[in-house]
Write a structure and sequence with these properties.
Strand content: 15-25%
Number of helices: 13
Radius of gyration: 23 Å
Structural class: alpha/beta
Number of strands: 19
Largest sheet: 6 strands, parallel
Bound molecules: 5'-deoxyadenosine, iron/sulfur cluster
Amino acid sequence: MGEVKSRQNTEELSRQFSYIEKAKGYVEEVSRQLNRKPTCCVTTFGCQMNARDSEKLVGILEAVGYEMIESENADFVIFNTCTVRDNANQRVYGRLGELNGHKRHNPHMKIALCGCMMQEPTVIEKIQKSYPFVNLIFGTHNIFKFAELLCTMFENDRMTVDIWQDTETIVEDLPKRRKYPFKSGINIMFGCNNFCSYCIVPYVRGRERSRHPEEIIREIKNLVADGVVEIMLLGQNVNSYGKNLEEPISFAKLLKEIEQIEGLQRIRFMTSHPKDLSDELIEVMQQSKKICRHLHLPLQSGSTKILEKMNRRYTKEQYLALVNKIRTRIPDMAITTDIIVGFPGETPEDLEETIDVVRQVKYDNAFTFIYSKRTGTPAASMEQVPQEQVKDGFDRLLKAVQECAREQVAKYRGSVMEALIEEVNENNPSLVTGRLSNNTIVHLPGTADMIGQICQVSLDECCGFYYMGHAVEK
Ligand code: 5AD
Ligand code: SF4
C-alpha cells in the first residue's frame, strides 16, 4: 500500500510541476503589463509549522517568477494564518483592511489567504462577506497544490476558494526556499489526535499522519548536501511519530537513524507531549552527540484538576516525575514550556499549583498564554473565568517564569560552549548572533562569513535572557 501511495504522490508531483510551468506564463504576462518583475510578500503568523509551509509557498512563487520582498505593498500578498488563539485571527482581519488600501492603488494586486484560520467555515463566510477583494483562499491540507491554485486564480476574476476537510495525501519534494541556508525545519508528521479540550489544532490540521522514515532521511540528506547543519523535526506531537505507519517505528528510532547522517551536526524537535515521552527517547537523547540540549515540554497547567479538564492525560505529579527523570539522566537539558492561564474553572489556587511547578522545574523559558475560547472545542462550552482574575494571575505567573528563566540562563556564565552563528546582529553590525545547543542566544564580535558555522564561544556576561561573549580557538 505504501508503494501505491508513493506512486500517486509522484503523479501528483508531476501534475504540480506542470502547473508551475503554466503559472510561469501567467506571471510573465503580468510582468509584461507592469514592465518589471512582479513582487510578492508572504506574511507568516503562528508556529514553526506555518514557517515551514511558508518556505514551500515562497519556493513555488520564486519558481513561477515572483520577486520576493518584505513589504506588503506588493503585487501579490499572501497571509499564512494561525487560529490557535483569537488574537491571531483579529490581527489578520486588521491587516486585511490595510491591504485593501494598497489594492485600491494597484489594480494588478492579488491577495491570498491560507493556513489554519481558513479551515474554519465561519472565517470563510466572514471573508466572503466583508473582504470580497481577496482573490484566493486555501487551507492546510491542499497547500501542495498551490501552483495549480495560482493558475485557477489567474484564470478567474472571482474569489477562488478551495478548502479540504482532511487528507491522506502527503506531497513533499516541491520547490522550497529556506529562510536560512544552514538550518531547516522538516515536517515528520502532520495533524494531531489528542484533542486537548481548549485546542483547535486537531480540527484545522486533521488527524495524525506520519511521513515514512526513508522519505524523512532522504530529505535531510539532501538538505545536508545543500549546506544545512541543523534541523528541526516538526510535528504537533513528535513523541507519537510513526505509530500509525504500516510498519510502525518509534520517534526514538527515527532519531537514531537521523543521528547517523554524516555532515548533520545538530538535531532539534518540537513539540513533545509529556504523556508520550518514552524512556527510550530519554536514552537516545542522552547517548546522542547531535540532539540539542533543549526540550520543549508543554505543561499547560500545574493543577491536576485543570489538566484533567484539559484532557492532557497526565497529573502534576506525573509531569514532575518525568522532568525529574530527564534532569537526572541529562542534567544539562534546558526545558521550556507552554502554559495557559484562565482555562475554564481555574481558581487562584489552581494557578498556585502551576507556579509551584514553574519553581520546581525551573524552566529555561516559558511561553504563557491567556486562555482563548475557540468555537467548536469542548472548553468553549465550559464556564469561563472572569477577565480581571485572569489578568492578575497572568502577571503573577509571568513574574515567577522570568525569575526562574533568569537564574537558569545565567548558570553557564564563564564557560565555553558551542554556538551556531545565525546572523549579523540587527542593532550592531560588528556583532554576530549565535545559538547554543540549549537554545540560549549569545552575541559576540564577528563577521558575516561566520554565519552557518559552529564556533566555541566564551559566555562572558549574562544579560537577562542572553549572553555577551567572544569566540575562542578550539
Ligand atoms: N488558548 C490559549 N492558548 C492556547 N494554546 C493552544 N490553544 C490555546 C487556547 N485556546 C497554546 C498551548 C499550546 C500553544 C501552541 O498554544 O499552550 O501549547
Ligand atoms: Fe493542541 Fe493538544 Fe494537539 Fe498540542 S497536543 S496541538 S495542544 S490538541
